[in-house]
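input
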Amino acid sequence: MPLNIIVGAQWGDEGKGRMVDLMASKARIVARFSGGDNAGHTVTVGEKVYKLHLIPSGMIQEHTVGVMGNGMVINPKTLINEIEMLVEAGIEVGPERLKISAAAHLITPAHLALDAAQEKSRGKEMIGTTLRGIGPAYMDKSARRGLRVGDMLDEEAFADKIKAHIEFTNKRLTNLYGAEALDPQKVATEYLEYARTLKPFIADTVGLIHSALKGGEDVLAEGAQGTLLDLDLGTYPFVTSSHPTSSGALVGLGVGPKDVGEVVGVTKVFQTRVGEGAMPTELEGDVAGMLRGTGKNPWDEFGTTTGRPRRVGWLDMVLLGYAVQVNGFTQLALTKLDILSGINPLKICVGYTHGNKTHKDFPIGEKDLEDFEPILEEMPGWKEDVQDCRKWEDLPEEAQAYIRKIEELGGVRVGWISVGPERDQMVVVE
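output
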């Protein structure tokens, strides 16, 4: 059976948790492949709302095994807290259900301190990082001085590595940024306790995934963040430090392209962004308020990880078309169609103007999109509440036309449409 991949098609926060939960119903293994606790996936099941940052959200399905792949960076404190939260909520999360790659990298207090110091030093040029230590952890990984999960298996050696890591980072914190030094022994003591807790979860996840594929079981790769945050392919420099694209799933799990089945791109029916960087279709005013919500509901446009209000705007088909290209999407999943009810007219971005030039495709070399103006096409909206729709024919004609326009401009079919926050509020397009 294949490896199916779910990837965010925007700047993250697309509602991937919804689709992971749906597709995990048929999967044996659900695997995260990139990023760390800068991600936030929300799954609503009845009155229960699960907000996850590290553990694959597909583990809400009781039959699944969760894998945290080699491409991840993991804060063990956050992970242990998340395990405890799920157990308290009645979800089984033991070593038989959760497997952590020995090759994944660890986030330490030194990475958190560096993240804060670096962001502060940028002043007005700050990137808008989540301050979770993600970038510094990947920097250490690339510099080949990172700490890996497998290091926790040897307590004595791990304690020495932790202390050496803190001592090395202290030089950068104090000399370069004027920040306060950390206590190496205190951090080592803390992380040895984490190691003792997490040892039973450490596994050869590459071997586990390939064994499942050879045995005819479905494996689902659960993406975090989104295409436009990819370190190489995103709107640089306002990107994350990993590869949340479909190709990142292969490297981050140790799987080859021959094993890939479906590649599903998840996108909201409007645009959102957190942090700095250009956003050509950004809105202010009443329409923005309708798209964002008030923050009272867990599905409103406020960050799961940061709590920051998200920037909102009309759907940008230039960016979505680019995401289709670089990921090789076989299908799209649309989320939050219900939010558009009552907004009339709707607008959709079909191109940009920049100076004297018109761009219908994503302009290579201009990924920050500064000073790009959107070309907006108007479409009629609808008044009907779509939350009870379960079939294509149940949707208002105007909603159907809007979706068909997305398919036309994106060059890929829409397979799923979310019409509300609940697990069953989904239209499956046959």
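quick obs: The chain has two domains: 3-91+205-428, 105-201.
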